[in-house]
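Reviewers of the previous submission asked for a worked example of the structure-prediction workflow described in the proposal, so we include one complete record here. The input consisted solely of the amino acid sequence. No template or homolog information was supplied to the procedure at any stage.
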Amino acid sequence: MFKFPKKMRCLMEIEWGKCRGFNIENIINFLLCMFVLVVWLITRHWFFNDILAVALVFFMLKMIKLNSYKVGLILLILLLLYDVFWVYLTPHLFRSSVMAIVAQKLNLPIKIELPLIVS
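From that input alone, the workflow returned the following structure tokens.
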């Protein structure tokens, strides 16, 4: 399977005071991230939504380490089956695509948005 790397274990132990690695770079990064988050919460602009979505992807890629390509391949196949079920099979079960409804109505930074520019 996978195991949490040392950085993730350190993040989980912050509340117990075992992780003391804060410096000026961490503080500047934190303030920059909070600025982007607050601007997105106020404006809900697609650009800041995309920044948060890409940052979430990079965070997950950095934190989760897979022990083998086999585990990664199995996870990708399961994610493909998951998407196929929610996009193509739910219209037959629920009379509408649950994935399409969620993608259109959910306004969270978990999707990358590109506005259509029509001239």
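The helical segments are 6-12, 24-43, 46-63, 69-94, 98-105. We consider this example representative of the routine output the project will generate in years two and three.
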